[in-house]
Amino acid sequence: MKNIIEELKKANLVGRGGAEYPTAVKWESVKRAKGKPKYVVCNASEGELGIFKDFFILDQFPGHVFEGMRLAMDYLGAKEAWFNLNANYYKKLKVKLDALVKKYGKKGYRFRIYKEHPSYIGGEETALLEGMEGHAVKPRLKPPYPGEKGLFGQPTLINNVETFYDVAEVMAGNYAKKRFYSFSGHIKHAGVFHLPIGISLHEALRQTDNLPDFDFFVQAGGSASGIVFRKDQLKTNKMAGAGSIEIYPAALKPRDLLLKWFKFYANESCGKCTPCREGTFHLYELVKAHDRVPWGQILEIVETMEKTSFCGLGRSIGLPVKSYMQNILKLNLR
Amino acid sequence: MSKIVFSVDNRKITANEGESVLQAALRYRIDIPHFCTHEDLPIDANCRTCLVEIQPKGRVVTSCDLKPKPGMMVYTNSPAVQKLRKENLELLLADHKKLCPKCRRGLFCETADLMKKYKVSGTKYRRADIKA
Predict the structure, then answer these.
(1) φ/ψ (deg, to 5) at B6
(2) Is residue A297 within 8 Å of A286, Cβ to Cβ?
(3) Which residues of chain A have a CB within 8 Å of the CB of B125?
(4) Which candidate from B45, B88, B91 shows the least CB-CB separation from A141?
(5) Contact B84 A307 (CB under 8 A)
(6) Do residues A13 and A23 lie in contact, with contact meaning Cβ atoms separated by under 8 Å?
(7) Which of A73, A155, A322, B23 could form a disulfide bond with A33, CB atoms 3.0-4.6 angstroms apart?
(8) C-alpha–C-alpha distance, residues A297 and A319, integer Å
């Protein structure tokens, strides 16, 4: 039998949820952690706008994901694995997933599916643990990290759907250093494409025949928290993070785009910490109340959220807003 | 029991084992505004007003969940802290002046003192209208 950690290291596998943490390091740290039982959790929350690769993978290759999770369970000596599954996805994937749960159950691997109310915060690794334990879905204070004290206070390995898919591919010897990217927006061929890792944005659009013939700009790495790039920046920037690209026409009004982002953030903020709970609400109200976008006031709140929010979701709001101001509108950030 | 010596605003203070920076600083009567921290409650770190800056990195973090390290230099009133803290206080205490007369304690409370001290207007933002 192959040494799974060596194989994962050789393949340079990193987490595919967006943070790109080395998978082998994460697995080893959970293995080292004291405490039994250990749990394996597959994060299939996918609450971000413009990302739908996890659904695609669970729909097309559910066997791979289960196999990746089984390998993790064997490695850690875990008896139980959980899915944190977007409830909308479960409605569509019920037949396939339930059959696999039964199949693995007969072999002694216990799989459980937690149907998560679709939300952005539900993808945050400690918030999803809270949800599965039956508490309000809000992030936990770190440390301790889930690797030491996760689900029900036990060491827990949390990986994205695509990471488990990749693990199965690596162990089967089929790993081709590719990953899944979601394409959306004003685009000819929207959908999920399997392309090499580290491909430039331009190349990704060209290979999928998606380069628009009109003036446009793009948002990469999630359509709420991703970075905004100009047309001439596409060649120098890579597909990274959560792996998505959305195309906007250049004629899109700043106010409309901000309304879309801020409405999403205001609805999805979990309400735990002040800057995110109050900030997102006031951002949306500010833009709604003004015909001309009040950039100064917006920046004040955005910077506060970016620097003082509790979890990564509130902190992520600086990326889209600031990159949009710099790259597209060419406004000075003071 | 191991004690940790670190500095807050260039003043040497000693933290007991398990204490956070906020708890140690409060013991020395160094004022750091805080709302969600209470001695009877677990640390939740949700109000985000007990901000301090760690030098030399210049990172602004909440002091309630910050564990002191030997020789750590913490500043409670740097320009970055002042700006971020004020914004969070304004967000948290939106419309507080207007609602003050409705409260049994009127203007005579810690919150009113704090608003005076940190020059929080309470009028920068409006509270959300909650429909019953």
Answers:
(1) -145, 180
(2) yes
(3) 278, 282
(4) B45
(5) yes
(6) yes
(7) A155
(8) 17
Write down the residue that tokens 């760690």 correspond to.
B54
ipTM over 0.95: no
A308/B88 touch (CB, cutoff 8 Å), yes or no? yes
Chain B: residue whose CA lies nearest to A309: B48
Average pLDDT, chain A: 93
B48 with A281: Cβ contact below 8 A: no
Q: Which CATH superfamily is domain A4-171 in?
A: NADH-ubiquinone oxidoreductase 51kDa subunit (3.40.50.11540)
Radius of gyration of chain A (CA): 20
Share of chain A above pLDDT 70, in %: 99
Preceding peptide of A144 cis, ω within 30° = yes
- Could you tell me which CATH number the domain at A254-328 has? 1.20.1440.230
What's the CATH fold of domain A178-249?
Ubiquitin-like (UB roll) (3.10.20)
Q: What is the pTM of this model?
A: 0.92
Domain map (residue ranges) of chain A? 4-171, 178-249, 254-328
Contact B45, B36 (CB under 8 A): yes
Closest CB from A278, A285, A307 relative to B91: A278
Over residues A117-170, the pLDDT tens digits come to: 999 999 899 999 999 999 999 999 988 999 999 999 999 999 999 999 999 999
Pairing between strand B11-15 and B4-8? Answer: antiparallel
CB-based contacts of A94, cutoff 8 Å, min separation 6:
none
Strand partners of residue B52: B61
- Minimum distance, in Å, between the CA of residue B12 and any CA atom of chain A: 26
Is-same-fold flag (A4-171; A254-328)?
no
**B-chain residues near A278 (CB < 8 A):** 91-92, 94, 125
> Searching chain A, which residue's CA lies closest to the CA of residue B46?
A273
Q: CA–CA separation, B61 vs B54, rounded Å?
A: 8
- Tell me the nearest-neighbour CA distance from A240 into chain B, angstroms: 26
